């Protein structure tokens, strides 16, 4: 067991894992936590071939496969080989989905059926890409609004073939060359390689198990074929959080974590980005994916802000509760929260920026502009109020560009008086002044001056 946690924290985590495995009768279950790129705890319960699973035991990871396909598509986008706005017909012509964009398919809002035509694809040998594409007729489209979330395994089968057509090689060969080898994920494979767990179903009313088939899914393999280990999934978790090596720019991975569609349940807790599932939990914004194939369940959830991740893998068709991962993260936060690094003054602050800091007013609303430790500017509502907030990075010409929030991509310009002193901010036509509606700044509509009510 790898751990750097207090014994009391380890016991809490182990008990949660043990309860999950025992009460839900899971043949084997391995789970662990990552913080700051390091595995800080791993626990294993049950047995694989008469022994505890290790971090090198393979399990089938199901739909976590989709995240790898998403990365391959985004690599093509970043190379200029395709655009997310491209219609499918521009690259894979001839289906009834041809007028839907690649971005819609990638973010699960294309309206495509969830499962392919024919037999239950997860338990039967798969067909060829040509056979899959031939089934995408009008009957494969669902009468849901095109912007509405509708999970589709078929969509990722199509995206796998899109990658194959544009690269001139099978999608899994491209994945091995462009992702797995660069990230040294040598135990992530299309078919099982020993040591690996056997996929099992547990009888609901008796303590007996049934072996599940593990067929090659063929053209549907990009939706859930991969096998992997806990160690490899920790590397993938680091990738999702931004440790991308040379595989993809971290900004692109951050783009993949932005919601493209929302699963509209009683409350908005989950959604889908560009190949990543998204989840909100106790103030966290988690990105990753769950996985389910006959005989196996798995999940990888990451919190890029906290640089934390949770992973679990099990060889059971059903039984592991969806709350296991978030419960482990909650236990970590409760029993071993981070201790902040000591604050120290920075020696490299651009002193010329100090004159921009402090209070600015958008109309009568106070905002505060401050310099962040990384040299960015931060603008947000003052007096502890919540509302629009954005960070800005310098463009080198005296202007700044918004990085996030309402003003993402918008230009901030510094207005100055005749003496060169900053007297207003122009943020995409919004004018911020040092005092509410300052008369010496170019406030649109002019400033008539403050007066008592009724005068």
UniProtKB/TrEMBL annotation:
Entry keywords, A to Z: Hydrolase
Residue intervals of the DUF7586 domain: 350-434
Database matches in Gene3D superfamilies: DD-peptidase/beta-lactamase superfamily
EC number: 3.1.1.103
Domain named Beta-lactamase-related: residues: 17-326
One GO MF term: hydrolase activity
Keyword presence, DNA-binding: no
Family per similarity comment: Belongs to the beta-lactamase family.
Name this polypeptide is given: Serine hydrolase domain-containing protein
């Amino acid at each position: 067991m790898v751990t750097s946690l207090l014994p009391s924290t380890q016991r809490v985590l182990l008990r949660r894992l043990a309860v999950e495995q025992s009460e839900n009768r899971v043949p084997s279950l391995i789970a662990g936590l990552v913080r700051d790129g390091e595995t800080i705890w791993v626990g294993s319960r049950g047995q694989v071939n008469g022994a505890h699973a290790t971090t090198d035991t393979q399990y089938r990871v199901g739909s976590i496969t989709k995240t790898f396909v998403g990365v391959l598509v985004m690599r093509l986008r970043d190379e200029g080989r395709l655009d997310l706005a491209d219609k499918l017909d521009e690259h894979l012509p001839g289906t009834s989905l041809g007028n839907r964009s690649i971005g819609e398919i990638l973010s699960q809002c294309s309206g495509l059926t969830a499962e392919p035509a024919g037999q239950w694809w997860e338990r039967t040998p798969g067909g060829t890409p040509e056979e899959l594409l031939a089934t995408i007729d009008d009957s494969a489209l669902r009468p849901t609004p095109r912007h509405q979330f509708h999970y589709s395994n078929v969509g990722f089968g199509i995206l796998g073939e899109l990658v194959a057509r544009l690269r001139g090689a099978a999608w899994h060969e491209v994945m091995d060359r462009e992702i797995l080898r660069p990230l040294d994920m040598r135990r992530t494979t299309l078919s099982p390689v020993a040591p690996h767990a056997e996929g099992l179903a547990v009888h609901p009313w008796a303590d007996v198990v049934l072996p599940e088939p593990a067929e090659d899914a063929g053209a549907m393999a990009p939706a859930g074929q991969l096998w992997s280990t806990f160690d490899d999934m920790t590397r993938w978790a680091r990738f999702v959080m931004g440790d991308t090596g040379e595989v993809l720019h971290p900004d692109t991975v951050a783009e993949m974590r932005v919601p493209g569609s929302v699963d509209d349940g009683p409350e908005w807790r989950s959604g889908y980005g560009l190949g990543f599932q998204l989840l909100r939990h106790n103030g966290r914004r988690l990105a990753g994916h769950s996985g389910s194939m006959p005989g196996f369940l798995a999940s990888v959830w990451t919190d890029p802000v906290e640089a934390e991740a949770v992973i679990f893998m099990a060889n059971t068709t059903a039984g592991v509760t969806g709350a296991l991962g978030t419960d482990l993260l909650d236990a970590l936060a409760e029993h071993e929260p981070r201790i902040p690094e000591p604050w120290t003054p920075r020696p490299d602050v651009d002193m010329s920026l100090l004159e921009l800091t402090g209070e600015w007013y958008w109309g009568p609303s106070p905002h505060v502009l401050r310099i962040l430790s990384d040299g960015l500017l931060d603008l947000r509502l003052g007096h502890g109020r919540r509302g629009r907030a954005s960070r800005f990075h310098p463009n080198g010409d005296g202007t700044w560009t918004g990085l996030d929030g309402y003003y993402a991509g918008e230009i901030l310009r510094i207005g100055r008086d005749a003496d060169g002193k900053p007297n207003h901010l122009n943020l995409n036509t919004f004018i911020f002044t040092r005092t509410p509606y300052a008369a010496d700044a170019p406030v649109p509509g002019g400033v008539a001056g403050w007066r008592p009510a009724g005068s």
